[in-house]
Each structure stands twice: as structure tokens, then as C-alpha cells.
Design a protein that fits this description.
The complex is a heterodimer of chains A (365) and B (325). Chain A has helices spanning 8-23, 26-29, 33-58, 73-80, 96-101, 106-113, 147-160, 179-190, 210-213, 237-254, 282-292, 294-304, 310-333, 348-351, and strands at residues 88-90, 167-172, 195-201, 204-205, 208-209, 228-233, 258-263. With 365 residues, chain A is α/β, with parallel strands linked by helices. Chain A has a single domain (28-355), classed as Rossmann fold (3-Layer(aba) Sandwich), CATH 3.40.50.970. Chain A has a 5-stranded parallel β-sheet with strand order 1-2-3-7-6, sandwiched between helices. In chain A, helix 3 packs across helix 13 and helix 6 (106-113) crosses helix 13. The termini of chain A are far apart. Chain B has 11 helices and 14 strands. Chain B has 2 domains: 3-182, 3-Layer(aba) Sandwich (Rossmann fold), CATH 3.40.50.970; 196-324, Rossmann fold (3-Layer(aba) Sandwich). In chain B, the strands form 3 sheets. In chain B, strands 3-2-4-5-7-6-12 form a 7-stranded mixed β-sheet, sandwiched between helices. Chain B has helices at residues 6-20, 44-48, 60-72, 91-104, 134-138, 151-163, 211-227, 244-254, 269-281, 303-309, 313-324; strands spanning 3-5, 24-28, 53-55, 76-80, 114-118, 144-146, 168-172, 180-182, 196-199, 204-208, 231-235, 238-240, 257-260, 290-292. In chain B, helix 1 packs parallel to helix 6 (151-163), helix 3 runs parallel beside helix 4 (91-104) and helix 7 (211-227) crosses helix 11 (313-324). The chains are: A alpha/beta (365), B alpha/beta (325). The structure holds thiamine diphosphate (TPP) and magnesium ion. Thiamine diphosphate binds next to strand 4 of chain A.
Amino acid sequence: MTKKTSTTAEKKPETAAKSAGFSQAPINAGLSGEQKIGLFRTMLRIRRFEERSLRAYQAKKIGGFLHLYIGQEAVAAGCCSLMGKDDHVITAYRDHGHAIAVGMDTKGLMAELYGKATGCSKGKGGSMHYFDPTRNFWGGHGIVGGQIPLGTGLAYALKYQGKKGAAMAFMGDGAVNQGAVHEAYNLASLWNLPVVFVIENNGYSMGTSQERSSAGELAQRAAGYDMEWGQCNGHDVYEVRATMDKFLSKAREQSRPSTVEIDTYRYRGHSVADPDNTYRSKAEIEEYRRTKDPIQVFQDQLVAAKVLDAAIVEKIDAEARAEADQAADFAEASPFPTPDDIQKDVYWEADNPSERKSHGRLFFE
Amino acid sequence: MPVLTYREAIRHALAEELERDPNVVVMGEEVAQFNGAYKVTEGLLAKFGPKRIVDTPISEAGFIGMGVGASMLGVRPVMELMFWSFYSVAFDQILNNAANVRYMSGGQINCPIVIRGPANGGTNVGATHSHTPENVLANHPGVKVVVPATPADAKGLLKSAIRDNDPVFFLENTILYGDKGEVPEGDVLVPLGRADVKRAGTDLTIVTYGRCVLHSLAAAELLAKEHDVSVEVVDLRTIRPLDIDTVLASVAKTHRVLIVEEQKPFASVGSQLAFMIQREAFDELDAPIHRLATIDAPAIYSPPVEVEQLPNPRRVLQAALEVLA
Ligand SMILES: Cc1ncc(C[n+]2csc(CCOP(=O)(O)OP(=O)(O)O)c2C)c(N)n1
Ligand SMILES: [Mg+2]
């Protein structure tokens, strides 16, 4: 990999030693076998959902972009498994994993990809714009870095309303170079807002490696804003949880923001339109998949701990595949929105005519 | 009826809404300790304290985006832009995030934010500080755009804007801040989307908004006195939603239209109005629709020349005579 800070060779021994430790971190040691299997299931469901969506894309059922999260599953699954009722999540366009991890129904997610009225955003957002405020999931945002001030605002609202929760604002390694991110860092630290900025460092922003896009360490930039920061491996869900738990607690208990950089990797191109043959080698991908695949790593840990065995894994996998197929069947069978739906959900007032207070035309020809 | 300045009228609206709804927060650069760059928020910090009246760093993308995010969770931020001209550095937050989040979420998320501040030329501050972005803003479905001309309208419209569940962009005018006018006392709202006939007439309709309402009224006075022409002045007050019905009713009466706007002419608010009037009242028109806009160049600094670049009573009068000829 072309990351400056974490070459595989350097990190490997340390990681192996540490990861036994992470499974024993209090936040993980307290997990029941069932909860551990739940985490494993979430990661596998994300992967099977995305593999199925890729097939649907190749069958031309899905338009636009499709940014797959395959390889990064432990990050969303680990982080979102820590959410309490007043914790909130916002992320960028690579959002399928987070949506599944917060508990959204994959039927609505697949239907959204198909552009169907039964989609989680009624077919109005697409792959990059999943939302479910009932699960504290605030999107799904297409402009690199643009969601970070919004996530800071979620934290501001929590603090303003006196709630003891935290916001997690996810971004990629490329997003840290956006001005809006730095403005948000400053505000969050200045005003002691309960937000954890999570950099999912998969090594590349489209076809540009971290090395070619970013000066210095990514998470360390937070220090310039007097914010605590940390780094961890993203292929080990225990490590993700142990690290994030520390910073989330700090946000909830002390209302202090932080930035956490989680090293991870995507196996697929930037989006399905990326032929993935200009900026990295197949060997690099294979190496990560072989040694650090987050699902395999967790499976091995759970099998070693006798929480899982081959039969259970097979059953969970079969269920995840079936769920993905059912989601695709549901999406296929669902109706498209109609042209009459185009101008719905634009204005609250237009959608609530009995409560409308303004006059005049809201729409034009 | 009490007489207030435009500035005081806005301040009263803010104070009353802060009093009424604990979710309302006023935020922006210099709004608290400094009492406002244009003193609109003077005294609010003393009255409501630092939780409700919040000074921000010079960080428009950051704090406006933060306000948008907070509004999704039910806070009702009223954000001050020291000048609307600075919207360009927060464009993504304003016109991608605030404008689109309801739509892209299939109607699941509301964004009850107000962004307010002055948007005008005529103060010799050059092109960077003289933008009038109402056309740019109103081009985005999902947002509402308000441009008040008088103290009474400023107060009543701002109160409506703060209670609105959609994002409302409120464009004031530094030159009007000191203008005085009668303002009804107490909880009096002016609904968004209702135009106001500021002067009745029979020979020519001037459709306008913002400070150009005052120029148009001054020109109408001269036209009555010196040219025996009866001019009706329709103040739109709100650009989106747009009260086209009041405009069309006036056109049906006068059959001649002049649009006056402090806008660059290309794809302006007036361009949209002209399209709608010809489309919906073609048979009523006795003359082509005319439009007086800002002379099409970046705002010039030179003080006496800037007066001529913008609409002014003399230019309005001249344009009116052209429609009547
Ligand atoms: C403001 C903006 N510029 C450019 C793009 C196009 N674009 C979309 S994703 C992307 C790469 C972002 O990489 P990173 O932040 O590392 O996230 P990742 O895709 O790796 O998850 C680019 C350049 C965009 N969507 N928004
Ligand atoms: Mg990346």
C-alpha cells in the first residue's frame, strides 16, 4: 500500500500481539457470544448486500454511481455497534455499510439503488444518499467533506438540548483536505461539542493515494485544533470498538471532540465505474484480502474462541445471501416513483398543505 | 403605531421569537459581544445570554453547515451572514445541504434554518461585498427567499421565516437599516409569499422588491406630479414562494409592466417574472415588458458612479417613460 504510516510489514507483529488485547478490552469482554455473532452477522450482511448490488448494477438495474464498502465492513459495524439512543451518525457517499450497521432494512436500501418508490429515500437519493433519522442516521452525502459541518451540528444540537449523546461524523482520507472539515474541527473543539470525526483511511481518494494527496499525518491535524486524536486498525472489529469506545465516552461524558483515523482498505474500485488498473496493483489488494480481511479475521477469532463453528458460519452466510436476494427481489417487484412524485418532498409546506402558512407559488414551469 | 427603524424591527422580531421558542438560536460573526456588525442584534446577548446569542469564528461554511445539521435535530438557528456576499464560501452548505436534504431523504428530514443578513450594493464597498444573490438562491427548489423593503415587512416576515419548517434566506439591506416606519406592535406576522401593493395606480405596474421599492415609489410620485401618470407599485416581498397572482391582477388593470430590480440582468428574478407575465397575461399587455436592472458589470467602487449603476429614482422614471411611450 502507498500509505506513509502503516506499511503492512511494520505493523504486522504489533497488530497480532495487540489484537488479543483488544478482544479483552472491557467494551468487548462484556459482549455475549450472541452479541459477537451479531457483529459478525452485520459484517457479513453488508458484504453480501454489496455483492448482490454489484450484480444488480452489472445487470443494469442500478443507475449512477455505486461505491462499494467491501473490505471496510469492520469500521461501520464496529462503530455503529457502540451507539446508544442519543448517538448519531453521518457519513459520505460510501454509505451502505453504515446504513446496515445502524439497522436499516436492506429491502429499502436495495430498492433505493433500483430507484424505486419503496427505497429508503423513496428513490430520490440513490446509493449516495441513504437516510433514516428514526435510527439516528443522517446520510449519505455526496459532496466530499460537506457532511462534516452537519455532523458537528448534530453534536451542537445534542449539547444544546442537554442530551448525553455523541455524533460520529465519518469521512474518507481524501476528505481531510477539504476546508469545511477544518472549519468543523475548529468549531467542535472551540465549543466542546460531542463529536467524533472518523477518518476511514482506505489509502486512496479515487485513484490518488494518500501519499500523493495529503501532507503529514491525517488524524494528527486534529492536534492543531487542540483536539485529541487516535489511530487504529480497521480490519479488527475489536480494535475499532475498543478505540472508538474511548473517544465516544469522552464525547458523551466530557463533551470533547476527537478525531480517529481508522486504517482500512477497499477491495473494489472507487466506484463500479473505476476499472481499478491505474493506481494500485492486484497484488496489493490480494495481500490485504489474504491477511486482513475483516470478516475472515473476526471469523477466525470467533472460531478460536469457540463462539462460532463452520456450521454456524455457513448458516449465517446462507441467511445473508438469502436476505440480499430477497432485497433484490423486493426492489425488482417494487414500483418506480411516478412523475407526480418528482415535486413531492421538496418543501415541508407543500407536503403539508393543511398547515401551510405561506402563499404564492412554490414551484415554477 | 410605534415607529421603528428597519434594524430595530428585525431586532424585535428576533427578540420576540427567541422569547417564544427556546429552540431559536441566533448565531454569526460579531452578533453577541460586539452587538452585531450592523447593530441589528444589539442588546440581545445581554437579554438572552451566550447560549442563545452565539459569536462564531469567521467560518461561514463551518458554522452555517453546523446550523443546518443542528436544524435537522430540531434546533431553529437564525444565522447572520455579515454580508450575504459571503455566501459563496458556504455555498455547498447552503445550496447542497440545506436546500436538498429534505428531498434526498424522501421527506424524512426538515431543515428549519433561517440565514439572514444584508445583500445590496450602493455602499461603495466594491464587487466582492455587493452581491444580490436572490436569483441564485431562488433557483434552488426547497428554499424560500425573502427581501423586505420596510420595517413593518421586515419584522413580520422574519417572524414568519423563523417559524417556517423549510430553509428561509432573508436578504436585508444595509442602506435601509436606518429607515424608519410604522410597525404594528406585538405578535403580528406577515406571511411569506404575499406581495403588497405599496401604491395603487392605473397606467403602469412596477413590479419590484427590496430597496428598489423605495426608488419606484419616489419615481411614481414624480410621474404623477410631472407626467400625470398613475403608477401601481407591487412589492413582491418574497421571491420564493412568489405571489404572481397579485402581479397578474395589477397587469390586468394597467396593461403595462416595468420590472425594477437590484440584480444583474442575466437570468435575474426579473427574467423569471417577465417569462411568467407574458405566459399568463399576454393578452393583457399593451407594450412589451420592460425591465430596469443593475448595469451589467461587477459593482463599481466609485461612489457617484455606483449610484448610476444601480436602479435609482431617475433611472426608474426614465424606464417608466419608455414603457409608456
Ligand atoms: C467536493 C467534491 N469533489 C470531488 C468529488 C468527486 N469524488 C467523489 S469521491 C472522491 C474521492 C474521495 O476519497 P475519500 O475521501 O478518501 O473517500 P473514499 O472514496 O475513499 O471512501 C472524489 C474525488 C466530490 N464528490 N465532491
Ligand atoms: Mg479513501
